[in-house]
Amino acid sequence: MVKARNYDKDGFVKRAACICVNEDESQVLLVSSRRDSRLWIVPGGGVEPNELPDIAATREVREEAGVCGMLGRCLGVFENSERRHRTSVYVLVVTEEMEEWDESKVFGRKRKWFSVEEAVEELAKHKPVQSSYVSLLLPKAARDHTCPLSPSSCQPGIASSHIPSVILQERTDLMVEAETKEEAEREEVEEDGLEDGELIKMGGCSAEDLSNGSTPEDGANDT
């Protein structure tokens, strides 16, 4: 049965995914692609209408990878502009691996544990966006220096498929913009001879929660 696509306000398909890890996050569990069983991907898929992205993420990994576990932090929201979808990505510590699961029986899905470094390298061959968010599990010194998003941050960030190593944090951008504007206004105040107390303060801006992203089709599964 083909499920209806679920879109955000910008027309991007809503997806959710989990980076499945062992207890110390030294290994990552990937699943075989339905399109090509020789390729490995991060399990994930469509967020259904009225479904929270974290619930969708855990549902998808159970269906695709046959694992359950403890859902941890959100790494952000990652954008694939070519396929027009945005994926909310979570970390899940695996506590149970089923011998058989839905997509192993129906599609012959396989799963395999990789070191984080191996997973990043494997995904970089054909899934650069997935590679970019798995790389956030690497030690800070080993990460791409252009990636400012902290692995512990749950603020929604967006990474473009054209620049997969750069995570653009909307909230940070808004804060920087606000600070820049406030500085400009302060300079204008000083030039006009006004008192600092007359400067209108800007309220804090919060980014809209994009934490959705998905399509249940295999194209969506293979972000």
- Count of alpha/pi helices: 6
For the CA atoms, what is the radius of gyration?
20 Å
Query: Biggest sheet: strands, sense, closure?
Result: 7 strands, mixed
Beta-strand proportion: 25-35%
* CATH topology term: Nucleoside Triphosphate Pyrophosphohydrolase
The geometry reads as: globular
Helical amount? 25-40%
CATH H level, superfamily name: Nucleoside Triphosphate Pyrophosphohydrolase
Count of individual beta strands: 9
Low-confidence runs of at least 5 consecutive residues: 145-220
Cα(first) to Cα(last) distance is: 20 Å
Subcellular location: Cytoplasm
Family: Belongs to the Nudix hydrolase family. DIPP subfamily.
Organism: Penaeus vannamei
GO cellular component, one term: nucleus
Descriptive labels:
seven-stranded mixed beta sheet, 27% helix, magnesium, NUDIX_hydrolase-like_dom_sf, Nucleoside Triphosphate Pyrophosphohydrolase, bis(5'-adenosyl)-hexaphosphatase activity, bis(5'-adenosyl)-pentaphosphatase activity, globular, two-stranded antiparallel ribbon, 9 strands, metal ion binding, 6 helices, 223 residues, alpha+beta
